Amino acid sequence: MEHLQETTCEILVSSDIHGHIYPTDYRSAGECQLGLAKLATLIGRERLTHPELLLLDNGDLIQGTPLSTYFVKNKQGVHPTIEVLNRLGYDAAVPGNHEFNYGLSTLYQVVEDSQFPWLSAGITVKGAGNLRSGNLI
Ligand SMILES: [Zn+2]
Question: How much distance in Å is there from the Cα of 14 to the middle of ligand 1?
Answer without folding.
Answer: 11
